[in-house]
């Protein structure tokens, strides 16, 4: 064992006087002493030859030798990186840096935020609700009982039956939850994702985004609805866009109307997008049905209101001339990069 002790002392002397001029010399030190085939590992392997009654003493000595060598290596590393630090100080920080790609919001997010901003200027608050809904909030509260034929207009993704839970088919369910908790006056818009069991194509998808609006107060009229929507269309598409209302049917409004604008792609002359009519439907609207008000204990003799709902994808399609709804959800960077300047 005396020979092993003498060997350790000799290596310590070598390590003490070892100097490294550069990083390569430091790496050579590491390989020689601390590498997988280095001196420290070789000496540690001698423990098997140490008598059992001396293992504790020699174990401590060998561990001290390993720590001594590692400290020397760290000191060498510190001394040989001084040149790199000096070089870093000589960098000309006034030079322009490397450019980074600029990201952007998704086009649907851009349009949704713009819609919300327009209606906020009219005093509408924003309300949100769950995407998984019960049958009452999605259908029953909106004047669609179980046997109502209007349910056939919406193919629904049901999650559970008895009780019925489903992926909401419209954000009218958010309006229902607002009317449960708040009494008139009510003025909210309800943006969010909705789901319907439809065949995916360039014109339809199994999920899309809506912004619905609800205004309930005393003496609210259809004229208020029209002026509100006129303001929205002009703010979104410009002052020159033409607007028309067509009678329609929705179970939760009466009377009901669909709103069209002049086609922005052909200027009203007729094209494939507007089916050569010069008009494009953008939303449905109407006066809130008295039955809906009664479902939430709102006095239909005292209060009236209007509601409207639009698809964000359709608004985005017209605003940015998008010809395929599937582009919104394909995450194609070539498509998304086109909206960088729109943020």
Automatic annotation (TrEMBL):
Residues 111-315 form the Aminoacyl-transfer RNA synthetases class-II family profile domain. Mg(2+) binds at residue 254. Its EC number is 6.1.1.20. The keyword Aminoacyl-tRNA synthetase applies. The keyword Transferase does not apply. It is an enzyme of class 6 (ligase). It catalyses: tRNA(Phe) + L-phenylalanine + ATP = L-phenylalanyl-tRNA(Phe) + AMP + diphosphate + H(+). GO terms for biological process: phenylalanyl-tRNA aminoacylation. It holds the Pfam family tRNA-synt_2d. Its cofactor is Mg(2+). Belongs to the class-II aminoacyl-tRNA synthetase family. Phe-tRNA synthetase alpha subunit type 1 subfamily. Tetramer of two alpha and two beta subunits. This is Phenylalanine--tRNA ligase alpha subunit.
